[in-house]
Amino acid sequence: MIQHFEAAIAHLHSHAKSFADTDWATITQLYTKLLQGNPNPFVSLNYGIALYYNGQKLSAFNVLEGLRKTFLEEYYLLHAALGKLYLLEGESDKSDFYLNKALSLTSFQAEKDFVRKMLLKN
């Protein structure tokens, strides 16, 4: 059953005409179901991002900030996600903090380039 939820999420992403047209409400619901059957921090990370784009920003930040209490504290993508979402909110101090933390957590050039592009937008 878990694979069906994952497949449905992938389908919605790949069939959206644009990022703006993504059905974030359904994706959020699917992540909720996925978390019930497969609770883990990686699913929670994606759930938090889906919440944000579904307009549930406070809940999104609560989920994502809560993940800092897990092993994802050492995962650059958690901090990159927080940095990007705070950037979208116009909170440049928080965005800079998380994006710089993301930079410090990866040694791969492509990942560093990805994060630096977001830092340049601050």
Topology (SSEs and partners):
Layout: H1 2-15, H2 24-37, H3 41-53, H4 57-66, H5 76-88, H6 92-104, H7 109-121
Helix pairs in contact: 1-2, 2-3, 3-4, 5-6, 6-7
If you average the pLDDT, what whole number results? 95
Class by helix and strand content?
Answer: mainly alpha
Number of domains: 2
Instruction: Give the terminus-to-terminus CA distance.
Output: 41 Å
- SS strand fraction: under 5%
The gyration radius over C-alpha positions equals 15 Å
Poorly predicted runs are: none
Q: If you had to describe this structure to a student in words, what would you say it looks like?
A:
The chain has two domains: 1-71; 75-122, no CATH class. The chain is mainly α and 122 residues long. The model has no long low-confidence stretch (mean pLDDT 95). α1 packs antiparallel against α2, α2 packs antiparallel against α3 and α5 (76-88) runs antiparallel to α6. It contains seven helices and no strands.
State the gist of this model.
By secondary structure, this protein is mainly α.
Key structural traits:
7 helices; single chain; globular; about 120 residues; about 0% strand; about 75% helix; mainly alpha
